[in-house]
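ok new one. same drill as before - structure tokens go in, u give me an amino acid for every spot. 278 of them this time. try not to just spam alanines like last time pls lmao
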């Protein structure tokens, strides 16, 4: 293989125009004065295997993978991290010098690191966590919470059978709660997480009562447009510590950057601003 001196990485998705990843990695490349590139790549599903074969030949060290390619990217990899296998999807691909493809998933890591950085003293070990939603994002959140020692996760999803399927995959520390009964299981919760798309710009609002939630429970939302969702606004108004979802995006990006460009980047207020810039 040709030895390319200037490292290149990127993000593969469809659509890709609105991805924040080029803003994040571009900010880090500039900040650290690294001679490298990070580019958005619009790829159709049927082309993904061919693209994975071609990119290393063009000097790519790796890529992030976003919707709708995260599951297929995992299948195409030669080696898969334990957490990516558990989640069933990949978001960070590294093209190894020996020609093999390594797949990882850093979404759950980003979720946990965001909470650790944003809520002082937070630990998932201190009590039950209530998780709303059972889609792809919920899988990342569940795997990270369980790995970090969460004793109990109460999982509620509109389509109950999807929550039951996650419980089967993730084991008995996950209990399924009916979507319409979620307000009844908040009483002793120490963390509340929204992983649904409800509350996102252009989507319906999330309408659950959090009146029963202890005032010291940490509330977080993976939705970051708007930054303060209705859930976070309500929680903040009653005094709960809140952590917005943008930080998860920032933290999940760091391990890929380190692998491709050789330096562990910092999560700073300037990075947040770069992520929000148009
Ligand atoms: P992601 O990969 O971002 O998690 P997803 O897999 O499409 O996206 O999951 C979206 C989540 O939002 C699901 O939990 C979905 O609930 P269903 O499994 O019942 O579809 C939830 N969601 C989306 N719209 C919803 C709505 N109007 N009411 C309740 N939940 C909703």
């Amino acid at each position: 293989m040709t030895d390319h001196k200037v490292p290149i990485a990127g993000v593969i998705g469809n659509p890709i125009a609105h991805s924040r990843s080029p803003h994040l990695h571009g900010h880090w490349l500039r900040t650290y004065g690294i001679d490298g590139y990070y580019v958005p790549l619009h790829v159709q599903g049927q082309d993904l295997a061919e693209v994975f074969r071609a990119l290393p030949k063009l000097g790519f060290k790796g890529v992030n993978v976003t919707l709708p390619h995260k599951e297929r990217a995992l299948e195409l990899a030669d080696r898969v991290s334990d957490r990516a296998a558990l989640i069933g999807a990949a978001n960070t691909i590294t093209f190894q010098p020996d020609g093999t493809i390594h797949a990882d998933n850093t979404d759950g890591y980003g979720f946990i690191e965001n909470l650790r950085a944003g809520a002082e003293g937070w630990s998932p070990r201190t009590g039950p966590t209530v998780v709303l939603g059972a889609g792809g994002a919920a899988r990342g959140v569940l795997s990270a919470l369980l790995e970090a020692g969460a004793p109990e996760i109460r999982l509620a999803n509109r389509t109950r059978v999807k929550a039951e399927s996650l419980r089967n995959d993730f084991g008995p520390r996950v209990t399924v709660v009916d979507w319409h009964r979620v307000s009844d299981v908040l009483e002793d919760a120490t963390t509340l997480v929204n992983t649904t798309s409800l509350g996102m710009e252009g989507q319906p609002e999330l309408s659950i009562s959090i009146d029963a939630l202890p005032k010291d429970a940490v509330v977080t939302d993976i939705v970051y447009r708007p930054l303060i969702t209705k859930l976070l606004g309500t929680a903040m108004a009653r005094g709960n510590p809140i952590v917005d979802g943008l930080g998860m995006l920032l933290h999940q990006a760091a391990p890929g950057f380190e692998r491709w460009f050789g330096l562990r980047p910092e999560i700073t207020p300037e990075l947040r601003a770069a992520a929000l810039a148009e």
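Residues 123-240 form a domain with the Rossmann fold fold (CATH 3.40.50.720). and btw The CA atoms of residues 60 and 87 lie 25 Å apart.
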